[in-house]
Amino acid sequence: MSTTGQEDVDVVEREPTAEEIQQALTVAREQGLPEQFHVQWDETGRKFWMLKSKRFHSVPSAMAHACQIGLLPPAKMPESYQDKELSPKELEAALREARQQGLPESFTCRWDNKKRRRVWYTPDGRRVKGGIPAALKTAAELGLISNARAPTDSNKIPLTTHEKIQVGLQEARAHGLEGWNVIWDSKYNQKVFCSPDGARNLYGLDKALAYAVKQKWLPADKLPPQFAKDRELTNEEKAKAWKAAKKKNLPETWTVVWDSKQHRRVWVAPDNRRCDCISKAVVYSVKKGWLDPTIVKPQKTSLTPAEEEAALMEAKERGLPDCFSVRWNPKKNQKQWIAPQGKVCNSIPAALAYATKHELILENDNDDGPVAAMAPTKRKRKQTRIISPRPLKQAALTQLIDAALAKDVQESVPQTAHTNAATAVEEEDVVDDGDDNVVNDIDEGDIGWTKFQDDQDDDDDNDDNGVNDDIKPADSELAKETASISGAEETTGKTSMSKHEVDIAMEQAELRGLPGGWTVSWDLKRKRRMWTSPCGKYKCRGIPSALHKSMELGLISYPSTPVQDASQSVSTDARAASAMRDAKHRGLPDSWTVEFLDDGRRSLRWRSPDGRVAKTLVEALKMSVAMGILPPDKMPVEYRERTLTAEEEERSLKEAASRGLPSGWSVTWNSSRRQKIWISPDGKKKCDSINKALKVSVRLGLISQDALPARLKARDFTQEQIDAALADARAKGLTCDGEFRWRLELNTKKGCRRWISPDNKRRCDCISKAVAYSKKMGWVPADSSKSYYS
């Protein structure tokens, strides 16, 4: 059962006040949330609960996760997350909705406790992947309904106009709008509510309710929230608005508020300028110099001659007469067809229907009759919701953007790769500065397992499996040469890579024996490549670990003789050619050569023109700059040396002091790791985060244990939790007694548990992995329980 509300997205956090923390903890403890969870706030002011790397935006979702991993007994599972069945009333409502949309009565509905939603089944018992629209398509494929009733991409709910009006009347009666009439506006594809006095025709039920309250036909408590005069945006609404604003690179100095007169959101600039949409705010930011024009994506305003010629040729092949012309609509981001009479059609089928209706289909030269036209059976409209009676004029917006942008914007914007995969530095290319005093929280584990997998859920029934599927490159692919350093993790350097770099990475993986289906992406948090398995559940930080995981998943067979790397069967020339292409793309001079060491793994090394050896490509690039054979401006941005400015250092120290770090600590920038490093007063300890610096301060005696935040203190396990964990392990087939006994190890520092194998060679952070390893070693029968890798 997957836990609703769980996210693994990196959020810029703010420091809450002591009163907020105490109040949130008091409410949570009263509801039964374990002490292992701690509360934090994100940049939008939204509160969330954390356990290790998992986040929950409500106490019930956190309690449900605690019950799954054994921190709470099953009886404490919130009611909304317990396994249930549809009540007769809910089942009747679901069937009535399906029958209104045309689904046959032979289809049945059930409740899926794992997905926490309704699912539909065919008459022969097969499950439908999706909701009612998918069930309608399945019914059409089985011949139970006609294809005309099956939903299409442009019409998800296949209702007639009469049925839409009846639905609108039912909505009006349910909200107390007696005497109101409902009509259907085919132009805007919306229901129109007509008042009893005939004075108003309102688009939308909320506007009808607001007018009824104003006329005192309904009590004041029926007024929709968005029409309240003193209404303010909630934290969830602000977070949703900022999510859309960040995609368009709107500066964070803007604020979003609710305008009670316009009944909509407006964006307020630092100089109190108000804009009613994000696009206008972006244009104003460019005009004022708050936003770099080069990161604003130029909008398409017209068709090129080649595109126009191709569109006209396609229309002619489908039977559209030559009297129609084509243009591009920037607002709808689509082509439009213009008839001689000025009629605008949004698609070729619509233009064919108009031409047939007005007899614009011309006769051909052979007098064989009119040209065959593919007339549509039904005019398709894209369902849209009218936000304002005065929509934004895209042509005016485009002119403002064009005026704000420089003439050479297109030359300065690099080519964008149409891929979600991204690469930057190979695992061998990361320079180690030789500092052994850096405190790391990455636990030792199996080969190929990343910290990301160490933080996975202990419950093998969790569909999410602790994998963050939302790892994506930044909205803009422009690398920022300098970035202001704040208390949060900053993403300097590359955020994505070109198509050429993706091809190089996939070629290297293929040469080293990685099976097909693996994909490569860029981990923004760890600033390195990450390989994702074909099933999407597992992520490995290198090709060797991906090879080991492929063996565990059965994608490739185990070697008959132990080898350290499957790449040993690959020719050296092929690897050298691939490495040289990658190095040349990153700017390494041609005078460098590549060679391989005879160390069992054939590690790659770079040799300079004067005979010196560089272990990594980054080191080779830096040596080239020092030798003068590579200009400094040709060095990739992510590898350039930089130091903290006085302002950045002051801001970092101020933040550290506010979080309780004692005086005497200093901060510097590590260009190799591309992050801030905190140095202890004696200069012997170096930490890569403030939290680690606080723990070191306790060990050095600079602060007391009580001064640490609650989330950094050691967490104790009760005997009830230990007994529950052992009982859960036995129920899932893990041997906890006898000769092949697994031992339970409790990490009080992190508040997690780990299972140690009988031979002390394996540590598993969840029971399912331990069971799978026991099957592999032959300690338990192969059919004792469900396999983690099946």
From TrEMBL:
Sequence segments annotated as region (Disordered): 412-499
Protein name: Uncharacterized protein
Domain of life: Eukaryota
Chain intervals with Polar residues compositional bias: 412-422
Biased composition (Acidic residues): 425-446, 455-467
Basic and acidic residues bias (residue ranges): 469-480
